[in-house]
Amino acid sequence: xxxxxxxxxxxxxxxxxxxxxxxxxxxxxxxxxxxxxxxxxxxxxxxxxxxxxxxxxxxxxxxxxxxxxxxxxxxxxxxxxxxxxxxxxxxxxxxxxxxxxxxxxxxxxxxxxxxxxxxxxxxxxxxxxxxxxxxxxxxxxxxxxxxxxxxxxxxxxxxxxxxxxxxxxxxxxxxxxxxxxxxxxxxxxxxxxxxxxxxxxxxxx
Length: 205
Description:
- This protein is an all-alpha fold.
- The chain is 84% helix and 0% strand.
- It is elongated.
């Protein structure tokens, strides 16, 4: 891929951004490729060293707030007519409900995952309390001479303590993975929204 082809594809990927952001990004990558060429690298090798266009687009979008991109995308190219304003107002219950439904759908999966974490922690706490109660009851039975009951409660308490340790380790492990999964989910959704809004919105290369 040549330098001009790379910059053209890059512009298509970020065409929905404000013009100053587009120009700044294009100048940055053009200068980076130019510096490599000046150091004796061929044009194709210099472009390849920059990485795939998609990866660079994602990096550019990651550094720009979504609100900044959306503001540019929805900024009217002309003043709205009266009937257009009326249409927006009349259809408000419909499109606003759709937005709320999509927002709720996005939050549903993380809520389910965190519900699983809470359940495991609650189960861990229950076994921990059970093990302590059994140990206390074991000593009570020893002092009262009920040795069979002491052995029984000691066994239950020992088993509960073991389950408490196992579930504690499992809880930490699951929490770490779910945290990463939720963070990755929101990061992916955010990047997807940015790509959707930042794509070439009819701008010419």
